[in-house]
## 1
Amino acid sequence: MTRQQSQKVATVLVTAVAIIVILPIFLVLVYIFAQGWSALSWEFFTQPPRNGMTEGGLLPAILGTLFLTLGTAVASIPLGIGAAIYLAEYAPNNRLTRLIRLAIVNLAGIPSIVYGLFGLGAFVLFLNFGTSILAGSLTLGLMTLPVIISTAEEAILSVPSEFRIVSLSLGATRWQTIRNQVLPHALPGILTGIILGLSRAAGETAPILFTVAAFYLPELPKSIFDQTMALPYHLYVISTQVPGMPLQIQYGTALVLLLIVLTLTLVATVVRTIMRRRRQW
């Protein structure tokens, strides 16, 4: 077999594998969209559930999801970026640092229900935050941290060392170099990791099941120490706990959650593309 023939065979195999992976996902998205589209309306987005959650809308669950996503961002972004800067720019390359990086990678693969149980013990019971937005946000923030740290560190390390050398040679301090040269060029990768991490947090059910989610709350939370509804848990409830629930409401709820996650992913893609075009290396 010639080199050209091998190349063609490899191209066909890779294309076939990509289609096999993408096609089922695409079919699932199309099916959810087709089944849930009829449930979408102004009332569905702006009214609370009523009549045993078989009628009405998703307003408390949508806002609860947004509150938790915002709380997760506040809890995880500063700490995650700070840890990434330390590991990439300040930490010595020794066995301890390598163990820390390995631990971060392993933490990213821990099942979300483990984070939920940890949040229950640490934030709900030990710190006495109760089942609240604060406890749920901190739990989701811990779950998101490994993703943010890993992606931010990789983005920082991808900045050419020449930028640092030139800045330091001109008299800038190490922090000035990081702040003015390294971080602006690493920002596309950092933002992508942040938004993808928040997208995962927005769609999680197990952590909020133990720390914040309520079965039914028609009123909006008044403080961070209140419980709230959330779309992932609400979808679980109406799919398994409510008899006689119309299928279109179930699929409509799934579609709204899917649209939120896809919107965050799309924002990450657009921001990364725009910033990479502005980058000059």
Note: The chain has two domains: 1-36, 50-278.
## 2
Amino acid sequence: MKNFLVIYYAPAEAKEMSAQATPEQLAEGMKPWFAWKEKIDSHIVDFGSPNSRAEEQVGDGSWSTSSKEVSGYSILKAESFEAAKSLVQNHHHLTWAAGCSVGLYECATM
């Protein structure tokens, strides 16, 4: 089995909407995540988490607030890239807000 990194991308507006949500709204929003987790449980290496604060460092060593639209991650295991794609096909994250997308990266063996 190979490991695959799933990156969830969301525009700043979607992340701001989530930051303003009530605990009840957040709990409701997590239901599709837990249903997906249960469905593919044997393929989950690390369920991951949402991201909050993000900074990035550049070549001179300085740090600044990141403008990247990464909103979270998961790590899955699958036999092939195609099998991993099937685990995230039509992922519920895509319906969270306009502009959301899911990236899939095969983790190289070192």
Note: The first helix runs from residue 12 to 19.
